[in-house]
Amino acid sequence: MQIRAPAILIAARAHGETAVIARLLTEEFGMVAAYVAGGRGRRLRPVVIPGNLVELQLSARSESQLPFAKLELLESRGPFLSEPLAAAAIGWACALTATALPERQPYPPLYDALGALLGAICHAPSARGWAGAMVAYESLLLRELGYGGTGQRPQGELPEILAAMDRLAPALDHYLLADRRGDVMAARSRLRDLLERILR
Where does the DNA replication/recombination mediator RecO N-terminal domain lie (predicted)? Predict the structure, then answer.
């Protein structure tokens, strides 16, 4: 198996002394897991950050083997992780995607929507510019996996967007994160709390 494609890095877990097991979302091949040698080293550490857009080169001898990946940074989200609200939003969007999606099933609308959402989080002048897109992404994820949801961006100001977030929470919890919700839903709760502080 040989793959070369742009990908959004959505999760990275330390493996051994210097390697990383990365999960990456591609448009054509869906979510793939791969071994990244030296992923915790000085050269690759800034590349292996959830939310980053990378050029992925994947190779494996067989379908059953964990592929090896080479990553080249295309767009970094690292500079935005020093801002708590942006960091929480990037963390939640990536954690939800990594937890909910099955491997190697393509979802081109989700790839496009996640890329657009991450771009909005990093470049909108305030959270009001991307909070509705976050709710639309959550809803699209539910729809693409067969659990309803519209993918439509909620209309209105931040209070209406927070109300829409609250309405979606049970579906996310029940359908997408049923056996793994602890840490993942905690990330969403933190994001919602930070958004609510804007109103105070």
Answer: 1-70
**What does the alpha-carbon distance between residue 142 and residue 125 come to, in Å, rounded to a whole number?**
28
* Nearest CA-CA partner of 186 in 92, 93, 121: 92
pTM: 0.94
Same-domain status, 160 and 108: yes
Per-residue b/e over 39-73, b at no fewer than 16 CB within 10 Å?
Answer: bbeeebeebbbbbbbbebbbebeeeeeebebebeb
Amino acid in position 59: S
- pLDDT 10s digits, 115-139: 999 999 999 999 999 999 999 999 9
Residue 3 falls in which region: left (phi positive, over 0), alpha (psi -120 to 50) or beta: beta
Strands 53-59 and 19-26: unpaired
Q: Letter for the amino acid at 35?
A: Y
The total number of structural domains in the chain stands at 2
Query: Which of the 8 DSSP states describes residue 161?
Result: H
Provide the domain limits for residue 56.
2-76
The per-residue pLDDT for range 136-173, each reduced to its tens digit, is: 999 999 999 999 877 888 888 999 999 999 999 999 99
